[in-house]
Amino acid sequence: MPANPDSPEGDSTNGLEAARRADATRAQDEAASVADRTLADTDQTRADTDQSLADTDQARAEDDQARSDSDQLAADRDQAASDRERSQHSAEDLEYMTAYAASEADRTRSTAERHGATEDRAATMFERAANAAQRDKQASQRDLEAEVRDRTADLRDEAAGAHEQALGRGGEWAKSRARADAAADRARAVEDRRRAAEDRRQAAIDRERALAEIQRAHLDDLTGVFRRNLGMVVFQREVDRSRRGDGRLVLAYCDLDGLKLVNDEQGHTAGDALIKRFCTSIRSRLRSYDPVMRIGGDEFLCALPNTDLDQAHRVLDAIQHAFADGNPGASMSFGLADLRPDESLATLVDRADLALREAKAV
Questions:
Q1: CA distance 19 to 162
Q2: How far apart are CA 297 and CA 284, in angstroms?
Q3: pLDDT of res. 169
Q4: Between residues 358 and 135, which one has the greater pLDDT?
Q5: Rounded distance, CA 199 to CA 132, Å?
Q6: For residues 149 and 7, what is the distance between their CA atoms, to the nearest angstrom?
Q7: pLDDT of 159-187, one tens digit each?
Q8: Which residues contact 359 (CB under 8 A, 6 or more apart)?
Q9: How do the domains of the chain map onto residue ranges?
Q10: What is the overall mean pLDDT for the chain?
Q11: pLDDT digits over 180-216, tens only?
């Protein structure tokens, strides 16, 4: 039988129910407050990260300009050295040799500066890619925060309902405040999602710029693989990454056999087409993240991280057969070298080159 609300027992029951509702309301308010504090801290962290990424973008723009100026200065030096050498050529031998030595020194310095600029551009490329990854991560975190804010708004709505049940119309102010806070939370959730979309848009721009930087300055026009300058930077990163990991890395030095004969008999257009098919065969059997570099006209260097010699040999055998099957009469040779402790990249490349020459001599 239900308790009489006018009896002492009914008063006690109503009091307990009101107390339970008040406790539930306080718990919901506390949960919303905790969420607010956490999100406020996260907002500050996100703002700091946004500022850091903006500063990095500005620094990259300034670095790009500085490298462009450096390249121009190096080109001017080369031209001046060439002009000086030409102007001195008809003078006495001693004067000519002095001028020639000065010109050679200028050209050496200019070459070193251009190589330094190339390495800087490579670093910028990797930084752009890293920033894109960071922006994607931020976007995902913003989406999660938006979900938290939506949940916080739900808690506030529930708290408003609990206030209304516990206090009747006398709790109108608390209910209105909770509803207003819930609406603000939902508005912030909308803003979080908007900023997440902006982060993803900026990440896409960073990736496009990084790709454009590679394509403009660092990829071989004919084959699309790395040129030597950037290629050596990328391969050094693979060596460094391997040393931080399991230490396994194999370099494959590949050579297209008989290119000169094709050029002589069929023309350089046919030779270029064969080089492109050769590179396609190489790429078709490697993983998407295995870097390939064009060393010379018909020579390519491939890096196979997290791979031992036996595995690498099977991969290169597959490339060799694929190329021969698709290009009757054509062939390739290769040499392999696995990374040794404390070995430099230059030494590793030399050993792979030696292995190639030994393979061709058989």
A1: 11
A2: 20
A3: 52
A4: 358
A5: 9
A6: 44
A7: 666 666 655 555 566 667 767 777 777 78
A8: 333, 334, 335
A9: 8-214, 228-361
A10: 75
A11: 777 777 787 778 778 777 877 877 777 777 666 665 6
Q: Which two tokens stand for residue 206?
A: 């960073």
Residues 236, 238, 244, 250, Cα dihedral to 10°: -110
Q: How far apart are CA 342 and CA 243, in angstroms?
A: 9
* Residues 225 and 293: beta-carbon distance below 8 Å: yes
How much is the pLDDT for 274?
A: 94
Helices within the chain (DSSP H only): 8-88, 93-167, 172-217, 228-244, 259-266, 268-285, 309-326, 345-361
3-class state of residue 134 by DSSP = helix
Write down the residue that tokens 């004919």 correspond to.
Answer: 222
Q: Is pLDDT of 1 > 50? A: no
Strands 249-257 and 299-305: antiparallel
Mind giving me the DSSP string for 47-101?
A: HHHHHHHHHHHHHHHHHHHHHHHHHHHHHHHHHHHHHHHHHHTTS-HHHHHHHHH
Strand partners, 337: 251
- Return the CATH class of domain 228-361: alpha beta
The number of beta carbons lying within 10 Å of the beta carbon of residue 89 is 11
Give the range with max mean pLDDT: 46-60, 104-118, 155-169, 249-263.
249-263
The 10s digit of each residue's pLDDT in 61-111 is: 556 555 555 555 555 555 555 555 555 555 456 766 666 677 677 767 766
